[in-house]
Isocitrate lyase/phosphoenolpyruvate mutase family protein
Amino acid sequence: MTTYLKFKELHNQTQPLIIGNVWNVQSAKIFEKLNFQAIGTSSAAIAYSLGYEDGEQMPFSDLLFVVKRIKKSVTLPLSVDIEFGYGKTSTEIANNIIALERLGVVGINIEDSFIENEERKLKDILQFSQLLQEVKSILTQQEISIFINVRCDVFLLNIPNTLQVATERIKNYEQAGTDGIFLPCIIQESDIAEIVLQTKLPLNVMCIPQLPNFETLEKLGVKRISMGNFLNDYAYTSLENMTTKILTEQSFNALF
């Protein structure tokens, strides 16, 4: 079985696949030590760690470097968040995906939104579906198999008629050959259940306040759970708090 098929099979388990979201080798090694089944990059966490803002502000070459180091250091299946694809055409995006696949990456996340004048907006549904279809076609021609997880930002942007719009988009993405669907900021159990009912694609949800617990998500039919950049935020908040404590106490005793 290929690495792509093995990764795809992880989305068909009874229990949801918990993705450990990483930003460097150290974070990846922690998830490997804790016996996670797979890891995925957090675009925001990597960007912040390299001094960039989120939203494709860092060069793709920087992302490739981080991914290469992670792949050389751990054996877990790795999915990479490519945000908008780091390209304006299907060929450019497909070439970026091919570069990642050649490093051993088994999956990618790509978003159906874009940022214009510092405002995030949804892409046109038909144009984005066509883009997905073209990217998939190029990958197939090159005999590249990789798990394409589409991040649909309808709930994140709180679009009117959220559930209806999300369902329509997901059906289009499914027809375009997508492997999975990612809905950040979906939290209502009724919404989650309805999405699961409306698509054959495995549903990916993300850590967010008021997200149901893992047991409930499993019962609702969720197949993948991501952490986003929340652990990264927590880690550096803890670092700041401990450093403040050291300075306040004028001692390193709190570390031991």
User: Anything to note?
Assistant: The chain has one domain: 3-255. The first helix runs from residue 3 to 9. The CA atoms of residues 16 and 105 lie 20 Å apart.
